[in-house]
Amino acid sequence: MSKSVAWIDDNITSKELTEWQAFYEYVEPFGGKFLDIQFATLRKQNYGGEEKLSVEDFMLFDYSLQTPEQKEQQRIQVAKQQAQAQAAALKDFLKSKVNPQNNHN
Question: Distance between CA 68 and CA 78 in Å, rounded?
């Protein structure tokens, strides 16, 4: 917004500030998040590293509005779900390799 926190505090209500934040977050088509996504996409295309990264990894601003603790909890939850899915897939694979007729010997 290019204004100081003191100026905003003295001149804008919290409702108006929230409306401006929503505008820049969700409406503004040529700047803000949209522009960040475009440049992040270009940065990803030019990335030469070995690690597989997503567009979000190249974004300049974090738009999630989550605290670091919430992000860590979400990361842990996703990791648990991935581990459970991998374990289930491995279990299904191993079951498919077992011949039920040989188990009765």
Answer: 15
Alpha carbon separation from 80 to 7, 33, 77, 102 (Å, rounded): 45, 30, 5, 34
With left for phi above 0 and alpha for psi between -120 and 50, is residue 66 left, alpha or beta?
beta
Which residue do the tokens 């567009």 mark? Answer: 55
Report yes or no: 61 and 25 within 8 Å, Cβ to Cβ: no
**Single pTM value for the model:** 0.42
How does pLDDT run across 6-58, given as a tens digit for each residue? 888 889 898 998 888 888 777 766 667 788 888 999 999 999 889 999 998 99
What DSSP line would sit under 36-66, residue for residue?
HHHHHHHHHHT---SS---GGGG-SS--S--
DSSP 69-90: HHHHHHHHHHHHHHHHHHHHHH
